[in-house]
Specification:
- By secondary structure, this protein is α/β, with parallel strands linked by helices.
- Strands 4-3-5-6 form a four-stranded parallel β-sheet. It has a two-stranded antiparallel sheet with strand order 1-2.
- It is globular and about 60 Å long.
- The model has no long low-confidence stretch (mean pLDDT 90).
Length: 198
């Protein structure tokens, strides 16, 4: 097989969630594109770090400076939702239900992947909590994923901020999905359903 093809497939595999077959499919799809489209994509990738930034406050995607959420004076500054990734923020925003502020950690604690308490944005979270809780009570909503990394991260946040006055720590509700049967639910799901019952 062509060495350039193999080399490019390996480069695409460095993206999260992209395996060798998917990388090859991406490359084959790109080979079908017009050269002007490839040039446009290549230029967008070259300029990625210059043209797309993270918000200095919450670490959402931004042009330059505060993002549209942080700069919106109508947002409820007594609520701070802590998320793992920007894509999680997009999902919450699409619901239209949450009107507070966000803090994106940049991942969940997973030392095997190099995501530690030092590499994630916990210091920035502490600073934001300090700033936001000066003048008002603050509800810090932990919205990490219900997996090992997310649970570890949630426990770390609880431990980090447990003695902070003026801050109430909450978690997103979780448990049984609509239409599911109790007999088929695993122990962890039932545990969460009981803990977070209304």
């Amino acid at each position: 097989m062509n060495q350039k093809f193999i080399q490019t497939v390996k480069l695409l595999q460095k993206l999260p969630g992209v395996g060798p077959r998917q990388a090859a499919r991406f490359l084959l799809a790109l080979l079908d594109k017009d050269e002007s489209e490839l040039r446009e994509l290549g230029q967008a990738i070259v300029n990625l770090k210059k043209e797309i930034r993270f918000c200095r406050e919450c670490f959402n995607i931004s042009d330059n400076g505060p993002c549209n959420v942080c700069s919106d004076p109508k947002r409820d500054r007594s609520k701070l939702l802590v998320l793992e990734k920007v894509t999680d923020l997009s999902s919450v925003e699409k619901t239209g239900l949450y009107k507070g502020l966000y803090h994106v950690l940049g991942g969940a604690i997973n030392p095997l992947d190099g995501a530690t308490t030092e590499t994630l944005r916990f210091k920035e979270l502490e600073r934001r909590v300090e700033d936001l809780s000066k003048d008002r009570e603050l509800e810090l909503i932990i919205a990490t994923n219900p997996n090992t990394g997310g649970e570890t991260t949630a426990l770390y946040i609880k431990d980090l901020l447990k003695n902070k006055s003026g801050v109430t720590l909450t978690r997103l509700g979780r448990g049984l999905a609509s239409g599911s049967n109790l007999e088929y639910a695993d122990e962890l799901t039932l545990k969460h359903a009981l803990e977070y019952r209304k």
